[in-house]
Amino acid sequence: MDGRHQIFDRTIRHYLAPVGEYLDDATVTEVMINRSDEIFIERHGELTRTAARFADAESYEAAVNNILQFTGKSALDNQPLIDSRLPDGSRVHIARTPCARHGTVMTIRKFAKATLDMDWLVELGSLTEQARQYLTIAVRAEQNLLVAGGTSSGKTSLLNALSTYVPADQRIVVIEDSAELQLQKEHLISLESRLPDRYGRGAVGIRELFRSSLRLRPDRIIIGEVRGGEALDMIQAMTSGHGGSMGTLHADNPRDALSRLETMAMMSQVELPLHALRAQISSAIDVIVQMTRHVGGQRRVTQISEVEPLGDDGQYRLRDIFNIQEVDGEDSQNSMQLTWTSERSGFGMYLRPEERALVTELTGPIMESRPQ
Length: 372
Description:
By secondary structure, this protein is α/β, with parallel strands linked by helices. The chain has helices spanning 3-15, 20-24, 57-70, 118-124, 129-140, 155-162, 206-213, 230-238, 254-266, 274-284, 353-361, 365-368; strands at residues 28-35, 38-43, 46-49, 81-85, 91-95, 105-109, 145-149, 172-176, 188-192, 220-223, 246-250, 287-293, 299-308, 317-326, 336-340. The radius of gyration is 22 Å and the shape is globular.
């Protein structure tokens, strides 16, 4: 942390003193401030109202303004909805009047100081060893991958973990609305969008950042979250030589993820026949990993599907490689497990010699049965 970050960190921590104990508590994943005297936390997936409170509304607003200043934003910009972050990387979302009817609302999604790798996710039960091997090969083989899931389902944590399998000699460009990904790579360029100032000037959106990234000679492009018209730019980049790109989006299952991607691509205002758009999407996306947040707070991979070429009817086709199935002999709480469906992986036959060596090293039922 450089000197500027240290100064902001001390200042912000001073203003956030009423919730300081929760920011330091590793078991707390989110701090939700509805108003100066109404503060909730999420711990182990459960919401709890705390006794914490700010001295008054002015103290609370001062804390909000200091957080905004850290990321070069200001309450004077007349933006009612703002994404920001703390010096430690924790994500902050702020809603103000007139959108927040009863005053400023702030939610802090804490940054996990201990980076979760894939082995740790296996240990936590978020996915199986077999699925880890499959995803390792998919990333190394430069398959374009989407991580889908609901809010707070673990999409970002999984994307961070997957990035460790990107070869060290590849150049990665990361594009985000508010910097949140903490990729453990050396050759990394991080781009962040920017809201307009109070005069409506200086806005830089995800689409502009994406177009800029293509001029930065990336080997892979990673979008923190696909939300709008940039989806079409991403799809076109994935089909024009930027293999191994990744991103996240909100969806309840892999098929919905493709439909949402289609809808967002239409927001680009570029007119494409629906069949042509769907053909591009099915060609661009290779693998969809579905994350789900269960009752009790556990976050798990519940489905991994490969995207196949469009069917004759113009509809998307998916090949489920893993899904949740009931496992005999397990206790009632853990009877549903991520299980290989016995489907062959469609990308196994396209592996290059170096990837084939990895397959040999990580031999498992999936790649043993790959098409010859």
